[in-house]
Amino acid sequence: MNAWRRLSGIVRAVALVGMGVGLLGAAPLGGGDGDALRMAVSTNSVPVEGVRVRTGQELIRTYRLRNFAEYGLRGVEVVDEQAVGGVARCPRASLPPLGTMVCRAVVRAVAGRHVGRVKASGVPTWQGYRSASVTVPAGYDARTSVLTLERAASQKRLSYRLVYSGPAALENLRLRDPLLDAAALRCASSGGLPAVLPAGAELECWAPAPDRPGRYESVARASGTTADGAVSPEGSPLPPLALAAEAAGGYTVPAPPENVRPVRPAGGRHRSAREAVPRGAPARRPGTNPPAGGPRRPGALSAPGPAGPLAAALSPGIVARLGVPVPPGAPMAPGAPVAPGAPVAGDVAGSAPAGRTPGRAVPAVPAVPAVPTAGALPPGSGATERRLPPRGASLGEGMDWAFISLLVVAFPALLVAVTSVSRTSKPRGGKD
């Protein structure tokens, strides 16, 4: 009986010793040296390090913590350099033994692939144990999709240049411009605007521009969609990204100049209508005097010289009173009436008939004393020279003038001579 009791006591002691040794072996040495704290990180509910997102998108990062030790942890903290503020928000600062906890943070995606290290740590509640900590990688891959449009406009052509970069092709490509005729648009890749533009491609298109005079201004717009494979915070794929680019510009089509009919003078040089000489006024070289008798009107008879010997016998005053036109350059007696339109010394012409320059003074004709002659003047005298017809006068004009002078001058002179002879031949004292 006593032996049995002794054996039972020994068995109990061995069992207690074994239990203590087992408990000491199950407890981690120092906490952080073993698997006391574990963590799993996911971005937008995707545990992959390089999850695909869009540049500028706000990401939700989740940190799942678990304590595998038989002691609790206090002062639990999650540090993430990519998170806003650098620290994740946890529901509490302690983690019980074999407990779990989920922390969250917001990450703003920057273009490119970014992978960093996330560290979680806590202080064991049992004295003598070192700090528990764990470090895991986490990151994302942010892709940028960019569409640019360049436009050039002139009086003859509208030009467009599209440049696209992104992780996937640009679909449903559109190009709109109020000045553009869609049917006339041509592109370098094909006849018209393609429906799909590959990633990293450049496209040039052109079309004729409106050419009516006026000012043209408009805003061109290019648009399309791309399925970049980005995910939402819940982990579901996002709808295709819509891209658009605009470019404003304008040009002016000037009005055509007014048509000016060129005038071809005798010299062969073209002159515009402003330089053309008015009709009825022949061109005159600078420095030359206008003709003494003025211009010849159509239908008027020009006098090549004096009205013959009978007119020469009469004084200029009598010839003027009889209504006989005095040829140009003939001397006028003092007090004789001036014919209408005859030049007067010191007069300024307000218009320019016969090639005279407007506003230029008409040169005065010096007065020459009249010398009445009984017969024909000797050759070489000044009067005979004045009787000579001017250059360019036709023979018909001279004959007409001689005939008119004979009728107008010779007949009145003959009548006066007959009357004088009849009075002198009648005897004195006779009755009529």
From TrEMBL:
The chain crosses the membrane at residues 401-421. Residues 251-308 are annotated as: Disordered. Keywords: Membrane, Plasmid, Transmembrane, Transmembrane helix. It comes from the Bacteria. This is Uncharacterized protein. Residues 278-287, 294-308 have a biased composition (Low complexity).
